[in-house]
Specification:
413 residues; alpha/beta; Spore Coat Polysaccharide Biosynthesis Protein SpsA, Chain A; 2 domains; seven-stranded mixed β-sheet; globular
């Protein structure tokens, strides 16, 4: 496990390098130059799509705000979500303006079903004239690939922001993109303000120590999936994913805040990604537990009231597929991280740990056992997956895991 030094601590250390501290910031391409490099490197498909969509969402009298919520909309399925979602954004209490951009899309055979969604968007806009709500006309496709849909939406917002001068001043806070979905149920009225406050405070804190930061990090916000009584099995599967991700203090793609300089640095979203489309942009955050066939864009369980749900067997298959490589590592990682942080803190205090190796091993095993017990309890009581719970009980030995991990942690530190 690699742990970065706190840049605030680094800035206070004595420095006698060959070049000044400002040298590396001075020679680095500006934010504007990096945005230009990304856009000039886009293929003709990306460039034309970005230009056409940007032209459609542009408001000549109102530039895009520097905080932008970007939402793809499955127009054949999500008409019922539009009104409440727009209401949630309209009630936000903010110090600075923000924009919301919707990208309705649907399969070719669902053209009739999309009309209601477009009507709902139009009505929501009329109901909230104070909200900077923009949308692209519904676009039809052979098959929805979420990576391509999000990439096109973000590229259009990036291009429009660029043409409106959003990247001219390096001293300004970066343009912040919020990667959301339209099925939001509720949101704190201060949600967007807290996001902006977080980034503003981080930039101010680093600037205070003379550190010029143009690439602020990607952050996940605490958004969880609401329980759908019409689809208990899929709801329980998503609850398990919520639980696993929160053990590592991360969340879904549809809750990420991505500064645009980070977006271009990562070369945008993966156009061919059918799930975990934010993978290369949000590297290390682990924002998805789903495989490509977990849920599809035509699944009946996406339509409330349909009475169609995934089966118990499919729910257990979805959970089992991600158990060993994703879910349980997320759950156990908090214990490992805690062990490393204690050693790291001791080392920086210039003292050795007061615990013996056996004591550290026992403490780590106890923490791992507690997290294993919690996972088993959640699987049995809340996810209704007793078979998976038994697999977890029989597979993971906290004592052996601590024994295997502790020497490696000592070497790294």
């Amino acid at each position: 496990m690699f742990m970065e030094k706190d840049p605030q601590l680094v800035s206070l250390m004595e420095y006698d390098g060959l070049v000044s501290r400002s040298f590396f910031n001075d020679i680095r391409p500006s934010r504007k130059a990096r945005v230009e490099s990304y856009m000039s490197g886009m293929n003709i498909y990306d460039q034309e799509n970005a230009s056409q969509m940007a032209a459609e969402i542009k408001k000549p009298e109102l530039p895009l705000a520097r905080t932008i919520v970007l939402i793809p909309v499955a127009a054949h399925q999500e008409a019922h979500n539009i009104s409440n979602a727009v209401d949630q954004y309209a009630k936000q209490v903010v110090d600075e303006p923000f924009s919301v951009i919707l990208f309705p899309n649907a399969p070719f055979e669902e053209q009739g079903a999309s009309e209601k969604t477009m009507h709902e968007i139009s009505q929501a806009s009329l109901r909230h004239p104070e909200l900077d709500l923009r949308w692209h006309d519904v676009e039809f496709h052979e098959e929805a690939v979420i990576g391509d849909i999000r990439r096109r939406l973000w590229n259009a917002a990036l291009l429009l922001s660029y043409t409106e001068g959003a990247f001219e001043n390096e001293a300004e806070l970066d343009v912040l993109g919020l990667n959301h979905d339209i099925d939001v149920v509720s949101m704190s009225p201060r949600y967007l303000q807290r996001v902006r406050d977080h980034y503003t405070a981080r930039q101010r804190r680093l600037s205070h120590h003379g550190i010029t930061v143009t690439d602020l990090p990607v952050r996940s916000t605490e958004m969880s999936q609401a329980y759908d009584t019409h689809c208990p099995n899929s709801s329980q599967a998503t609850f398990w994913s919520d639980f696993s991700l929160r053990q590592r203090k991360v969340s879904y793609e549809a809750s990420l805040v991505i500064p645009f300089s980070r977006y271009v640095q990562a070369e945008g979203f993966s156009a061919d990604a059918r799930t975990y489309e934010t993978g290369r942009v949000a590297a290390g955050l682990g924002t998805s537990l789903w495989s490509e066939d977990s849920f599809g864009d035509r699944d009946e369980c996406r339509n409330p009231g349909s009475g169609r749900d995934i089966t118990q067997a499919r729910k257990e298959d979805v959970i089992f597929e991600t158990l060993e490589d994703q879910a349980m590592p997320l759950i156990f990682d908090r214990a490992y991280s805690s062990a490393v942080e204690k050693e790291f803190a001791a080392e920086h205090a210039l003292r050795s740990s007061t615990m013996t190796t056996d004591e550290r091993r026992a403490a780590l095993a106890k923490d791992l056992q507690a997290r294993k017990n919690l996972a088993v309890h959640v699987l049995r009581r809340f996810v209704d997956a007793p078979t998976i719970a038994s697999i977890v009980e029989d597979t993971y030995d906290p004592g052996a895991m601590a024994e295997q991990y502790l020497p490696r942690a000592n070497v790294i530190l």
